[in-house]
Amino acid sequence: MKTVYLDNNATTPIAPEVYEAMIPYLTGQYFNPSSMYGPATEVGDALKAAKRTIAHFLGVGNVTQILPTSCATESNNTAIYGAVRANPGRRHIITTSVEHPAVLEVCKDLQRQGYEVDFLPVDTHGTLDVRAFIRALRPDTLLVSIMHANNETGVIFPVDELARVTKETDQSILFHTDATQTAGKLPINLRGSFKNVDLLSFSGHKLHAPKGVGALFIRRGTPIRPYLIGGHQESGRRGGTENVAFIVGLARACELATEHRDGEDRLRGMRDRLESSLQESIPYLEVNGKGAPRLPNTSNVAVHYIEGEGMLYQLDEAGICASSGSACTSGSLEPSHVLKAMDVPFTAMHGSIRFSLSHYNDESDVDHVLDVFPRVVASLRKLSPYWDSETDRPTGKI
Ligand code: PLP
Asked: What atom of ligand 1 comes closest to residue 71's alpha carbon?
């Protein structure tokens, strides 16, 4: 049976070109990039070249602003704890209620340590109120950490505007964004529209590089303490021998993402066809975040009166990989904190499914979902106590 992989916001397949680029550094070119002899300096040069490519991908020229990490979780932890430790005079942080746990849990941890944290709410479309954000800025605000796009719904936040008003209010407030879901999907220019962003995180495995590599952009002059303390690698900003092969792979993935940018319309076209056809064939189905600017590859559909787990199980049996909530919350019975924050009705909260595409998908994948999913929903609704299968409508009793 063919596998139709539609869970690219959880992770992506490694691009063959990325794999090819990594092989020399997993085999003959194994030298420590910090060592002083000839073959090692060549590896050190490859590391520098990779960082230059990553910097270029983000629109910046200076490679010292790129800190390779092991994943976006590490990038986010480094950005937030690093900023907090370097700025002991301030105690207030602003974030949102829909961040990935790699930011949310760090902020909750800081709250337990006595920091004041504002978790800004979103509306039913998943969007932020910019005026409420401006009101939240305070003279003692240390850091703002707001994601670029949401991993569950694909809703995009106006990071350029939020960073601009932050700096207009107070130049010394640090602005961090978790761009894990946008790097490779949307253009990012840290010298252009993102020029007020101080810290930006992303992860390789969301853009066809392997798991186990990520990066943190740290704008020159940003006060930040190292998070991983050890050797003098990365000018003392992160101890630990660099994972050269994976960083080279990440750089190649960044180049490919730039080459594939013109595929955005094709992705959006497939996503839109998926959504409109599902809405036509399945009653009581809504698209979470539809009223907001969204990533072109992400569709989070709320199917009323049934459970996400049951749908996932039956989709899996038909060879379709999708997810309910984020990869981090799937497997738990707790409804997604993102959908809760959006006030998704109770009847749909547990029945949301995320399909996320990549440029490796094609129209036949969409066709397969359109063939299978309406039948899955119909069969589960027949078993649902809240659904009257005779009349194809909800009983109204919850
Ligand atoms: N931030 C966002 C928005 C994500 O979607 C994810 C992963 O899903 C992460 C952070 C964590 O990424 P990693 O698995 O590379 O630590």
From this structure: 15
- Torsion, CA 66, CA 67, CA 73, CA 74, rounded to 10: -170
Choose, from 71, 107, 321, 328, the residue flagged as catalytic: 328
pLDDT tens digit sequence for 144-184: 999 999 999 999 999 999 999 999 999 999 999 999 999 99
The radius of gyration of the chain's CA atoms, rounded to the nearest angstrom, is 22
**Contact 150 CB / ligand 1 (< 6 Å):** no
Whether the Cβ atoms of residue 275 and residue 367 lie closer than 8 Å to each other? no
Q: What pLDDT band is residue 347 in, cutting at 50, 70 and 90? A: confident
Ligand 1 centroid, distance to 100 Cα (angstroms) = 7
Sheet holding 66-69, edge to edge: 66-69, 214-218, 199-203, 174-178, 141-145, 92-96, 116-120
Q: Which one of 159, 180, 207, 300 would you pick to mutate in the ligand 1 pocket, going by the greatest count of ligand atoms within 8 A of its CB?
A: 180
Is 18's C-beta closer than 6 angstroms to any atom of ligand 1? no
Q: What is the mean pLDDT of the chain?
A: 95
Q: Where in the chain is the domain with CATH 3.40.640.10?
A: 16-259
Close Cβ partners of 21 (under 8 Å, ≥ 6 residues apart): 248, 249, 251, 252
Mean pLDDT of 24-51: 97
> Is 57 within 8 Å of 254 (Cβ atoms)?
yes
- CATH tag, 4-11+263-394: 3.90.1150.10
328 among known catalytic residues: yes
299 lines ligand 1 (CB under 6 A): no
Task: Tell me phi and psi for residue 354, to 5 degrees.
Answer: -105, 125
- Architecture (CATH level 2) of domain 16-259: 3-Layer(aba) Sandwich (3.40)
Does the beta carbon of 204 lie inside 6 Å of ligand 1? Answer: no
pLDDT score, position 326:
46
Contact assessment for residue 299 and residue 273, using Cβ atoms and an 8 Å cutoff: no
Atom of ligand 1 nearest to the CA of 149: 3
Q: Is 274 in the pocket of ligand 1 (CB under 6 A)?
A: no
Specify the amino acid at residue 5: Y
What are the φ/ψ torsions at residue 224 (nearest 5 degrees)?
-155, 140
- What pLDDT sits at residue 328? 44
